[in-house]
Amino acid sequence: MTGHLAVIGLGPGDPRLLTPEASDALAAAQALYGYAPYLDRVAARPGQTRHASDNREERSRAAAALRHAAQDAHVAVVSGGDPGVFAMAAAICEEIESGPASWRSIDVTFIPGITAMLAVAARIGAPLGHDFCALSLSDNLKPWDLIERRLDAAASAGFVIALYNPVSRARPWQLGKAIERLRRHLPATTPVVFGHAVGRADERISLTTLDTTDAAQADMATLVIVGSRETRIVPRPGRAPLVYTPRAAAGASA
Ligand code: SAH
To answer: Which of 128, 148, 168, 224 has most Cβ atoms within 10 angstroms of its Cβ?
Structure first.
């Protein structure tokens, strides 16, 4: 079988943050599969077909792309950010594991992209400078009580926490609940960064602290970084403050 499937990360939105490897893979594809707003970021090429699907249809999109690649085609599936972070790469692996044996012979490549938490962190300093974790607040694929247990564990273990999928139209309350939960473990002064649509025309970065964080400020295109006890804010005259987490944990010998 000569079918080829590339699972491509497009980065957060700015075309300059698309890697040359991703750009080459997009150019080589005969067919592109993905969520429509992500496909819209890719320049049209003659002869290349496009197959847009809804955001919530990851498994069926993965299966459709694999069926297409199995016909000896050169197919690409696109994700925003990195395809391995709450995105299509795992859906593709899942379909290969459960699908027809012939799909295991398809030449699959995963092409990384700059994930949202890295793009947001870079706008404000180095909030992820020490140990951190990433959590999706979407309870479409896991129960809410598991999310709460992970928030408790991460905050009490001293991790900085990047929150993906903080809210959606169908899930308006999750971020507020998560913030309430984190207030049980962390000081009121803990820095909280909201990064909205980083790398796109409507980008907005804001900095608050845990006591004043307003969950209503977040939408589907927002990534939230909640600091640890060690995360610091450095005010600067005439410039936005820096937020960083020192590389040495408290109590470490220098
Ligand atoms: N694979 C993507 C994440 C998909 S989950 C990645 O690696 O970035 C979708 C969530 O990612 C959104 O709800 C939001 O929390 C975050 N996100 C994606 N793009 C973003 C951007 N440009 N700015 C801020 N957050 C973003």
So the answer is: 224
